[in-house]
Task: structure prediction
Amino acid sequence: KKDVVVLAAGHHKDRSSYISAYKHFFQCINDEKSNGTKAFTKWPHFFYQLSSVESFWTEDGMYGSPRIPGKDMMSCQPTVPSAVHRQEEREEFGVLVPFIADDVDVKKLGEYHVEHGDCLHWIQPGVPDLYAAQLSDFLITITERTL
Result:
């Protein structure tokens, strides 16, 4: 049996550094696997958890983007038009690593954010449970197929 490692880049200032490092790491692993290097057969399985969305009252829901006039900045958008970080992660990592939470429609989960101006983090029951269930189902399925 192999261990499972789940990585994520987060949303804050070091995000781009994490994305770059993870991409290099995943590429190295894939290159070694392609070369038939036996050392990597003992490594754990790596997966990447796609980011949640930001639901601020801006055009794209992202913190720091132009605000939508007349909206209460202490509340969050119930839906956002895009999931910018998730799209970036899909583009950067491509087929280098399997994704977790790829089929969770997070664009409609804004109403579950903390509120009071924090439209990025979730502390209410529901959304973290959804991610935990997704991760659990994914790991059970992958274990049955490959581990």
